Amino acid sequence: MKCRGIITIILVMCVVVVVQAQTPLAATPTPEPGPLTLVVWLPDTLASADQPLARAEINRQVQVFNASQSSIVVEVRLKMVNDVGGIMSALRAASSVAPGALPDLTLLRRQDLVVAQRDGLVRSLEGRLPPALISSLDAVFKLGQVNNQWVGLPYLLELEHMVYRPNAAVEEISGWSFADMLDRQIPFVFPAGRSSGISDVVFLQYLAAGGSLSADNTLTYNAEALETTLLFYESAREAGVLDDRLVNYTSVSDYRVDFESEQVNAAVFFSSDYLQLLEDNRTLEAAPIPTTTGQDIALLNGWMWVLVSSQSDQQDAAIQFMTFLMQPDNQSAYARTLNLLPSQRAVLIESLPRIVDQTVYLSLLDHAVLPLAESEGGPLASSLQEAVEGILSGERTAIDALLSLQAQHQQP
Hints:
Distance between the termini: 125 Å
Mean pLDDT: 90
Strand content: 5-15%
CATH superfamily of the largest domain: Periplasmic binding protein-like II
CATH topology of the largest domain: D-Maltodextrin-Binding Protein, domain 2
Number of domains: 2
CATH architecture of the largest domain: 3-Layer(aba) Sandwich
Structural class: alpha/beta
CATH class of the largest domain: Alpha Beta
Low-confidence stretches: 6-25
Radius of gyration: 30 Å
Number of strands: 11
């Protein structure tokens, strides 16, 4: 009996083992992939602590985007612009030793975009964005092109142009040619001093006089354009239209207080300065930078979105986020907090204060020239800058300067 009981227990256990062996194991559930994190570097100058409205607006837009997405989470990090550890130096350093520390998307100014494209730090945007968005950029599309490659999506713009306080003399003569400036005898100021390269104003004036750039953005020697430009500086100094103080001005901030206190009535400013100045003086007008022809001309600069990541999924997410930020209401709202101009023409028109002459602004935009990067301009640019500073300070005559330039740069 005892043996029979033991045998029964053994048989039951065998049956249990067989049943368990035939019962399929429950499949281990595959974990759902988490949302993709899109790392965006934002220049601190566009969302600093003293710009609470700008910071609040870009944070709001990021939150709205994140809330509308289940597969993408945008993470914004503020980065310095020019200092050590800033955007460009960080891009260079991380690209070779720590690519995982790179952002997927960031904003760059034109000068940095040129360098980033040359060094292979940014990716092409060709065929990545909606055609309607591209066409909305109109004339400013060129801002994002480097060496015939489209690598930057223009986002926020700045124009450098003349700003003046209307008076009887200015209203009587509407032109802005060299002759007009000398006839009106109205002094104007601009940042004529540079530690390297060439002043934006001198650069534009040389191009308007007939100068040109080579394929690598080096100024080419043009005797007539040099003569026209330098003789104007000599005549303007003798007439009191320009003076030696200008060589000490390296930024518009050097004379802004003088302009606001009406010690100066005509000066070169950026559009962001102009829009801010309008808040206190609604009579101020915009005009082109004076040239030999008086043509509409300004310098165009701005911030552009660039793709940094080489991974297709990160790039796709970045394109979605850029497209969202470029929606008219979003772009206009953020640009307004910074007194910058939206890159899309229709959005810009709608965003300009009603007291701004839209015809003038759009013409300046259509005829704007791109700035030179630090590595561009070449030897002639530096020599021309030195010549202008010498004439303004009274240390050289225009003829002396022209002979020196001829000896240095004219091809035999």
